Amino acid sequence: MSxxxxxxxxxxxxxxxxxxxxxxxxxxxxxSLLSYAYAEFPSQVVGTGTDTATVGGLIFFxxxxxxxxxxxxxxxxxxxxxxxxxxxGSIKLLLALPHTRRDVFVGKVLGRAAVLTVALAVGLxxxxxxxxxxIGDIEILxxxxxxxxxxxxxxxxxxxxxxxxxxxxxxxxxxxLAIGFFLVFELLWDAVTLxxxxxxxxxxxxxxxxxxxxxxxxxxxxxxxxASLIALLPDIADSVGTGVGADDFDAFYATPEIGxxxxxxxxxxxxxxxxxxFDDADL
Amino acid sequence: MPxxxxxxxxxxxxxxxxxxxxxxTVEEGEIFGFLGPNGAGKSTTIDILLDFVRPTxxxxxxxxxxxxxxxxxxxxxxxxxxxxxxxxDRLTGRQHMQFVxxxxxxxxxxxxxxxxxxxLEAADRKAGGYSKGMRQRLVLxxxxxxxxxxxxxxxxxTGLDPNGAREMREIIQAENDRGTTVxxxxxxxxxxxxxxDRVAIINRGQLVAVDSIEGxxxxxxxxxxxxxxxxxVGDDDIEMVRMHENVQNVTLExxxxxxxxxxxxxxDVLNALDDAGVEVGDFxxxxxxxxxxxxxxxxxxxxxxx
Lengths: 283, 306
Known about the structure:
The structure holds two protein chains of two kinds.
Chain A (H helix, E strand, L loop, with lengths): L1 H14 L2 H23 L1 H5 L8 H24 L4 H6 L1 H7 L4 H35 L4 H27 L4 H17 L1 H12 L12 H5 L3 H12 L1 H7 L17 H23 L3
Helix pairs in contact in A: 1-7, 2-4, 2-7, 4-7, 4-8, 4-9, 7-8, 8-9, 8-12, 8-14, 12-14
Chain B lengths: L3 E10 L2 E11 L4 E5 L6 H8 L7 E6 L2 E2 L4 H7 E4 L11 H12 L5 H7 L15 H13 L5 E5 L7 H16 L3 E6 L2 H7 L2 E6 L2 E7 H7 L4 E8 L3 H9 L3 E7 L2 E6 L4 H10 L3 E9 L2 H16 L1
Parallel strand pairs in B: 3-8, 3-9, 6-7, 7-8
Antiparallel strand pairs in B: 1-2, 1-4, 4-5, 9-10, 11-13, 11-14, 12-13
């Protein structure tokens, strides 16, 4: 299989780089630190007033921070995936071989996703192992659900950044676009939604938001991920007091389940657009 | 079935016409040289053969397959040494070769091929540490995996020392003897002159000439210059040589007699000098080279345009 050959080569290439190992260390340290901080000082770090640490609490605590790390590392690991090969010319070796551009594109996504998910899975498993010990409780199923959703989120972000990388032959432009995406959709989305609200409300901040405004708040990949997690672990979400803020809205779509839709969107649409651009390009 | 067939091939990048209505046929079994100065459109043409670049107009057919619509079939049957490529710095030479074999889905004797291009001793070192010449040998080895029907080599001697360039020619020749068609581009004329059955010269995206080396020579006004070390040569001797059949010009600089001839026997001239009692020492023949031919084709073309 051509896709497998490309993905394998890409993974091998990345596995030789120190970045992968640095990433693994970072994720292990991060996850362990989060587990320790939460287990020892639950009320301070979560701030919900509960003094007892639970595995469920650790899941939602970790999920809130892991998105930031995953999105940033995805940018670092993936922005060069295709733009870099085009810029220096190694893509000529790759595409002189019998690979379609789709094979190269999908192989890149899979290879980079493998790098990130391996590092992340190892980090989270060690972190949660520590968490189990410190909290004195073991809950396998919710942690597996959390792990699965986190890997899906990782795949979505890898797909987004590789797709951005596929639209250009310049790594500096790929960097700009990827960081721009992160700024708009992750860091500044609250401001964006505020702007949308202001404009939709007739250039005023007063009054109630329309129902569809809920959808706007759920657009970012990390929001879609959180909502999906809440939808899958409703009892735990309830017990730790986490929600998607759907109570203010009355529409049928104002539920955490909407997260699945947005997550699916981020998993599919960027890949389609990125691949199309790449397939049409003169290299 | 021709190995390569270009029919009105045209590629426009913005307002630059890189390839301009190219018609060309490369027969199976040939070693075909694709010549032109830098920026003439050689690499763009090769990029179209590999579907890196899509033509604006016209078609390219490789081994009977459309280079765009059936690119995968094309790339299964050819070996490529691209221009301006970059190896994967963190992978070893052997891993590069394994990747090619996996991609082409063939069982190749990787070590034997690496031996042929003399890169075997560096097989387990990371390619990032290779010199330019070693990388060129590695990529050539990669091109040979799977015994391709056609080798497409874009400037194959780039980065090679004269010895390496000679070995490259020998490999090209050996592959051709095994029945492989070779299409290679170059701006270094010696390379082409030494191995090619036929050459095409392109300039500014257009075909200027296609012929065998001999054919190209015959079709232009070519001449040979004979340099002879002489002692005690007199004016009458020079005049005698000048009157000789086929001799166009004679000059004497110090002890060197320079005789320009269009055909005819060089030895007749040497014998005539000897008979006249001139001491003839070393002599050398400077044949009108393809280089000169190439310069003539490409510059005349340009002058005609401007």
